[in-house]
Write the structure tokens for this entry.
Amino acid sequence: MAVTAQQQETASDFIFPKSYNFPPFFSAQPTALTRQAQLRKWSIFVQKYCRHHRIYQLTIIEVLETPLFHNVALKKRLSLKDAKAVIDYMVSKEGDERAEWLGPEKSSAWIWWRKPEEWATIIAAWVEETGQKGTVLTLYEIVQGEATEKQEFYGLDMDILRKSLNTLVKKGKAQIFGTDDQQGIKFF
């Protein structure tokens, strides 16, 4: 018996897509066109799941038994090979580069439900709206400060924050000061 959306919402407050309750969703489809559509659906699902749960990085072997890749009610799951194929698709241009492998062994990956450039745009907009251009802010203030508690980037992984801010530095819109544990940034 498939888990209903209402049951899943109660369990995790996340609404799974309809395809999650369709057994073929968990098996690699043999025709190229169907496979591409399947991978696209998996990519969207992984992004939404990670966004909802504020997951920035996946270790593939660790998530194989979680609801992300394992539907207990259907007794269906993605194999390690198929889970890696989903992430490979997400890494590709065709998958809109919504993931990035961490290392050649492909055991873990960043999941870009927001790419670093997108985070940078959101943070820069907040700086603009709050009149903080020209002010030096610590990285900690940006992701853990009282002023950002209601912002989407509150609690953002520090590595992603650095990647995001570096996109602004490259564009000449910001400058980072200090060492890794005491970094600040000035926005222009």
Strands lie at 57-59, 70-71, 76-77, 99-101, 108-111, 136-138, 174-177, 184-187. Residues 116-187 form one domain.
